[in-house]
User: Fold Accessory gene regulator B family protein from Lachnospira intestinalis.
Amino acid sequence: MQKILGKISQWLADENVIEQKDKGLYEYALKSVLITICPIVAALVIGSLMGMIKEAVLLIIPFMIIRRFSGGYHTKNIWTCLILSCGLIAGFTYLSQYIDNKWIISFITAAASIELMVLGPVDSVNYRLTYDEKQYFKKILIVLIFLADVAALAVFSSGFFRYSVCVMLGIILTSALHLLRVLQQFFAKTELMNGESR
Assistant:
């Protein structure tokens, strides 16, 4: 993906659409746009194939927004990411139609929300957050989780339990991938400490 984005930004520079010195900035902007568009396109395609477009979109929106500030597990290459992402979207969308116990799903969502607020944000492999960035992201994260929980509750109160489940599953999925990254960091740190103590 980086090579393709590099070629696009180089082509824009060669065509004098952008200045050569701004290439890196445009590569970053293109990457941000792709990262935003790809999950929505995947959710729309998967949702339409399953006949569950609304459910897939309601699942992916809280996931994308919260994950932007919480961080979480990332695969090492783009194809693994694409396959895993599509599988998770399809799996969680499919699962949404079979969840009928409002207390269990509400409890799991509350636990996921608390996990994200307490342990978030987490560094990604490619980008380490400074202390100030972590504090800033945590504040935004708490507000976003609160808003997602309120949105799920509002949809539920309006009598659309199935759709509220999709929003809740978006929060749960974010938490699951976030917790996976937290555990990954914990085990890496433990391994490093054990190596130093030998």
